């Protein structure tokens, strides 16, 4: 009787080991299959919702890679600044177009040209006031350095700097309406946030 119970216990134990072994083989097989298909989950630093532009901040992320650590950092910074500048210029262009079209100004083309020239000047100055909000460095298997970086510029600071420049311009002083411009700029920032968030 005792021998029979012992055999049943051994049989049950072996059965459980066999089931556990089979299920672990299955999961290993799945992992290999996924990798064999060329898919591998990677982490990209300094990206995601916290690093996207919203109605208050322009933000841009970039990556730089080099055998030299400092060159990697410079590449990432340059790429992020270029991305940020493009984003800002696009938003300001939309603001100017909508502002000029919504007001009754004389010689619209000349006014628009003057706005664009002055805002471009301000944007170039403001690009010196950007803030690094994320920076990470890694070293790859090929012994290269990879820098991940995210930059940010305050929309409010940019809008105030543009207002100051536009309101001091003799050619625009008569036609320039700050409240109308600010309202148009804020609407463009809202649009940007929606585009970046994807909703």
From TrEMBL:
Residues 1-27 form the signal peptide. This is Lipoprotein. It comes from Labilibaculum antarcticum. PROSITE patterns: PROKAR_LIPOPROTEIN. Residues 101-128 form a coiled coil. Keywords: Coiled coil, Signal.
């Amino acid at each position: 009787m005792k021998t029979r119970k012992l055999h049943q216990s051994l049989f049950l134990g072996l059965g459980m080991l066999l089931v556990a072994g089979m299920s672990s083989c299955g999961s290993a097989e799945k992992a290999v299959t996924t990798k064999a298909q060329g898919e591998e989950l990677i982490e990209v630093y300094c990206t995601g919702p916290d690093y996207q532009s919203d109605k208050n901040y322009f933000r841009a992320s970039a990556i730089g890679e080099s055998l030299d650590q400092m060159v990697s950092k410079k590449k990432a910074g340059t790429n992020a600044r270029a991305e940020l500048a493009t984003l800002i210029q696009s938003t300001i262009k939309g603001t100017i177009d909508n502002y000029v079209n919504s007001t009754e100004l004389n010689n619209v083309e000349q006014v628009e040209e003057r706005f664009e020239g002055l805002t471009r000047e301000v944007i170039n100055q403001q690009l010196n006031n950007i803030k690094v909000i994320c920076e990470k460095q890694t070293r790859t298997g090929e012994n290269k350095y990879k820098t991940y970086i995210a930059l940010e510029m305050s929309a409010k600071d940019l809008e105030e700097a543009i207002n100051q420049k536009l309101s001091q311009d003799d050619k625009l002083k008569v036609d320039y309406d700050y409240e109308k411009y600010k309202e148009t700029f804020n609407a463009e920032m809202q649009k940007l946030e929606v585009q970046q968030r994807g909703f």
